[in-house]
Every structure is written in C-alpha cells, then in structure tokens.
Amino acid sequence: MTSEQLVSKLGSCLTALLLAACGGRTSPVQPAKSATQAVQGFMQAVADSNLSKMADLWGTPSGPASKTNQPPDWERRIAIMQAYLRSDSFRVLSDVPDPSGRRDLLVQIRRQACSWSVPFVAVKTNDDSWLVNQVDLTQAGNPARPCLQGTSVDSTAGK
Prior knowledge:
alpha+beta, two-stranded antiparallel sheet, globular
C-alpha cells in the first residue's frame, strides 16, 4: 500500500469516526435529582439544540418521552418547545411544591431585549428522578417576532 492510499484510508476512517461522534449521543442523560435540575438540564438542551436530551428530560411519572414514546406526537412537541424556548439566557425564578406532589417552576427567558416568565411543571418519576412535564409556551413570546425597543413584549402584543 502506498503512503497516498494509507493517508486516504486513514482520512476516510477519521471522517467516519467524527460523523459518528457528532451525530450520536455522547453520553446518557443523568437523571435529575430535583425539579430545578430537570428544568435547568432541559433548558440547556434547548440552548444546545439537543432534541434527544430534551426528550430524555420531558415526560410523565411513567418516564421520559424518549422511552415511553408518549404522547404519540412527542417528537413534534419537542421541536416546537425548542423553537419557542430558545433564548439568549434563562434562569429559574421559583420552584414551589403543589399539593399533588408536582413542582411548579417559573423560568425567565431572555431573547434580545425582552424577557418572559414561563411556567413549567415538573413531576417525579417512579425511579425518584424528575422530568419536565408541562411548559406554558403561550408565555414565551413569539420567537419569530422582534422585541419592541424598551419593552418586554414582542412586536404584536396587544394587537
């Protein structure tokens, strides 16, 4: 084998390895030990455009959507949540228990000059980890519309 063939073969192998590493999951998602941790992990996955990690952190007490395949349209819902929750920054403002054992969280997202307070609900799973269960996207503003300068609303609020 000539050195040119060896370099070509090595380059092909490295390209295949790189594609596999970038396209695949690098490590399993660690179960969230708290509702706040679940929301922070979910929002970081939003920021990273990591839909599979979002699906691992969103679900019901029965488990994450990525494992239960519930609801039937979970992949579409994850993509929509990612589009609406993408932001410049986020922070958890509150984490309050409710009588049913769920946790109600309020998350501030900042996009351009605007900020929104978005309600989240987290639930405890059968294995004592936490998942995001509900997100009120109506409170997240419209990511396709610019913010009005000097206000905290998008350009169509109140119209």
